[in-house]
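protien #1 (seq + structre)
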Amino acid sequence: MTLCELVRTCGQRLPGCIINDRPDFLRRGAYLDCSRGKVPSVDTLKALVERLAGWKINELQLYFENVFRFAKHPKIGRGYSPFNAADIGELEAHCKKHHVRLVGSQATFGHMEKVLAIKEYRSLGELAGFRGYSGGMTLCPGDPGSIALVRDMLGELAPLFAAADFNICGDEPWELGRGRSKRRVGRLGVGTVYLRFLEKIIATVRRLGKRANIWADIVLAYPELLGELPDDITLLNWEYEACGPRIERTAEIAASGLPFMVCPGTSGWLTHGTRLQNAMANVRNFSAAGRKYGAEGLLNTDWGDYGHRNFLGVSLHGLAHGAAHAWCGTKADDATFTRRFCEHVFGDTSGRLASGIEQLGAVRDRVGCRLYYTLVEPAGRKDGEVAKIDPDGAREAIERLSAPGLWAGAARGLDRFERVALKEMKLAGEMDLLACRRALMIRDIRAGRSVRRAEQRRLCGKLDSLVGKFEVLWMLRNRKSRLGDNLRLLGKASDF
């Protein structure tokens, strides 16, 4: 890959040189959510692996909740376009070809709401009806059926991955101790009840020849657990805010002697265009903590909460930036990174595409609310994100995102993967534009100000057009999965 970089930079005549280059972290990973709506096609994942390998990423983790077709539990994943064993095998072979470790990641405790919504598994939940989910979100650790289900799932899924590591997640069991485990938690404490179930899951993957990787949020919430965990695991310390508190708590994990990775994020979820500055600072600060305290790796995460309307193409900048800091964070120049990213990935030397990415990535900061929600929020809701929008910031965002030629400048002859990414960035900008315009119109209507019917019809027409564009782009990279849910939600955006 270094040779490829030299050819790209210098052309056919390479200078005589000595290469003194080595990575900051042994494990340099990207983490892709495949469970919140979008299930990427195998071809999309193979193309992504090739790009990640070019950025010297050597690990890809895929997050599963219910998107694998389990032979013993065929109802899990029905209607979600799940992967099967052949898909994993095909992707595994492609990753090996490009020197990328493919690591599985399966929810096994919290984030089980899609499984628990199935009638046959509803009784395994900790608290039925929690947050509106019929079976709740978390397995009841005291129910023997819970660990039996987890063992079945891991027994089918984990052996498909050649890597020694397997991520059992274990994060955010929100309602633990508030339902069926309440009395037990009252006696032993949340931390102990959590640990006892986690130990059973760890033992399961150990018998399968794997080392458990575990999100560290609950362990850090109950730090006394650090001394009780087995040493054949890796803790994944995640924090997605630029200066979030768990970054500095990396020191506690290091002091325990347990192996760990630092896990920033692309800030690409719950937004159409990422929070660019937060994402870059999050990676920069977390990678520095990882180097300081001896992390074995950096795992850069990209999520898709609440329907996964955010596009992979928009997240490529964050994934590439994480790769830069995983390899040589002390030498990474964040001030020029976006321009260099656009030059190397899209062949844009004009700076226009970099400007577009920067403008799109700054919208959330300008408007002060999540346009991901304002685009589809019911007009009659008075306490939602529309009420939080900064009108002046929204008008500024509209002006900046409407600038001509914002997404121009990319080189001709790009591969399909990059061409689709450009379309995704452009549509993300359109979604933010329409979200701003819709929010301003709703505010005017609520305030009793006159809104011309022609103006309202024009906005509704653009919102209706958006639905078709969104469907096309979804299907270019992904299986159908929950596309219909998003189309119905977007279709209601024109209701005022």
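ok now protien #2
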Amino acid sequence: MRTGLYFGWEGTAGNDAQALLGQVLDQVELGDHLGFDTCLFAEPQFEHGRMSVSVPEIIGAVAGTTHGIRLGSANRVIALQHPARVVENYAVLDQLTNGRIVCGVGVGQHESSFAAYDTPFDERFARFEEALDFMRQAWSYDAIAFNGEFTKFPRSAARLEQAFESEPYTKPYLLPWQRVGKPVNHLAITPRPLQLPYPPIWVDVTDPVTTTTAVQRGCAILPPAILSHDAVIDRYQRFGAALADAGRSAEEFERPLVRNVFVAASREAAISLAGEAFQALFRDHTAQGEFADPCSLEYLTEHHLILGDPDDVFDQLKTLQQKAGVNHVLCRMAPPGIAHLDVLASMRLFAGEVITRLRS
């Protein structure tokens, strides 16, 4: 099983942004040194109580101080972005990181985010699916014309009767910079990603409807940290059934999930150091209308959190692996309220006594 780190931004609006981001960079750099496989960042957009963070800029900062860890977004709300810009961002980052990018995308759950961009909230699913189609096609062909409901690329693509057309090959083939002054009916987005055909796309499945979208487009799914263990198992059972109906197997895909994890010398110490911070995190989710279950520490430790000594954490992760079939766990270890040095200690203990056992 692969392992990774996850950073969300709940409860960070009043924090010292420079100090917080500095701690995040330190933790990712240590994660790279310790052998974590992946690090994903959430990307909230004008959500109450949360910093609005641009993931490409964070990845760019981290890329220069890390060497092996994969980097990416967990839930970039592509319905609020021009998809050509998203394609450019991830292609350049994939080149700069020598092919270490993961493209995690999401539909978006907050009306405030869509209101900020003057985008109708009830269009989010249609915009998400169209943007996802654009991204996959733009990365797969030399040049394209895309005539979608929300995106015309280039503007002359409105002439098309179909939604998409790749540029037909004619001699002599002209490279993009040789086309100045000529009619632009197709556009190429360069550079291309280093990974072929493009970076892995993981679809955030906070909403179960997006599981079908992921299967139809051949993408992996990413159950978020807010889901209970039982809900994660349910999402992967639905994913497996939908893949079987499509004649495919879950074994073809990386199967990640995000969990709230903290490791200490004993279960009591882990709960003492991290329990209150994770409880505050779920209270924040409740205030945002994202979470409706009890926020008692007893309930959360049974259904949502993985806190304990290395044996406890390993056993709980192995149980999830067996029941859900996951092969990659991304750990949120640093919600606001846990001291930076305690997070680093948890990471070291997890790397020294849990990662090696998960890989074996």
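The first strand starts at residue 2 and ends at 7.
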